[in-house]
Amino acid sequence: MNTLSLLTPKRADSGLRQSILRTVIYFDMFDYPPTAQEIQSYLESPSSHQQTVMELSELSSAIVQQGGLYALKGREEIFAVRSKRRILSAKLWRQSLPWLRLTQAIPFLRFVGISGSLAIHNANPEADVDLFFIASPNHLKVSYFFLCVLRKLCRNFTLCTSLGLEMDALAVSRKNIYTAHEIHQVRPIWGHEAYALFLSANEWSGQFLPNAPSRQSSGMIMSESRPLALIRAALELMLRGRFNPLPWVLIAGHQWNLRRKKIACTKIDCFQNDQTENQSHQHHGVRIIKEFKTRLQKHI
């Protein structure tokens, strides 16, 4: 059995209070005390904001509240953690946005978004800028290579290519509470059309998080630059072709360079057909699922 598929959506008849507690426990793994709105948005059962607030008031024996934030009893120290991390996240956003704008010039790239801790303004001092990207069919490797070049040029922060998909294969294969959270917490940078198709291909996430908001309606963080789009189009014209050997040469050279520097294989992005996923990101998902199960057994 796939480890990442162990946690399935909760039954509709499970209690709202238990669902609230599960949600707070999930966020607690990341030292993140959510607001009532965030709890309602990421519940595993349908509920209105008013219902959620009412039930939260009945959970005072297990959940404490401070300044509109909620945490497990005995974990009050994470209230201060959230405040500090919001400041760190704001700084990281300022540092990374100019570089993220440059991704609009990368050939065959159709969408760029931020996932991970930065997406929810919960970055710690060692946090990376986790990149989720979508490329044109048969050109994932080309886009990935140019992202690796950009990653080398970045200063003051680390750009991590966590997950890449192609436009004709947007469905995420691992269906569980962790990937559902990742899908709905992505902060879209640019590429509205590809992002809309991605959400449509992963409607299954609503089985886990029926109240989760779609960021599609809030729009992209930045508008697309015409000069950068023209550069992208010119590069695509030069590189287009299904049997163009250049992508394979580029990737082979990149992986040779990794081996030359003796970088651990868990840090190497792996390609499987039409997607790439950083293996450390994949293993992180496995750890989160296991930890979530352990904490549920402890608190519920």
Compact summary:
With 300 residues, this protein is an alpha+beta fold. Helices cover 47% and strands 14% of the residues.
Description:
- With 300 residues, the chain is of the alpha+beta class.
- The chain has 2 domains: 13-76, Winged helix-like DNA-binding domain superfamily/Winged helix DNA-binding domain (Arc Repressor Mutant, subunit A, Orthogonal Bundle), CATH 1.10.10; 83-286, no CATH class.
- The chain has 11 helices and 8 strands.
- It has a 6-stranded mixed beta sheet, sandwiched between helices. A two-stranded antiparallel ribbon has the order 1-2.
- Helix 1 crosses helix 11 (279-299).
- The longest helix has 25 residues, at 78-102.
- It is elongated and about 65 Å long.
- The model is unreliable at 1-6, 10-14 and 261-273 (pLDDT under 50).
**Pairing-aware structural class of the strands and helices?**
alpha+beta
Q: In order across it, which strands form the biggest sheet?
A: 6-3-4-5-8-7
Number of domains: 2
Low-confidence stretches: 1-6, 10-14, 261-273
Radius of gyration, whole Å:
20 Å
**How big a fraction of the residues is strand?**
5-15%
Mean pLDDT: 85
Helix content: 40-55%
Largest sheet: 6 strands, mixed
Distance between the termini: 24 Å
Please report the total strand number as a whole number: 8
Shape: elongated
Keywords, please?
300 residues, alpha+beta, Arc Repressor Mutant, subunit A, 2 domains, two-stranded antiparallel ribbon, 8 strands, 47% helix
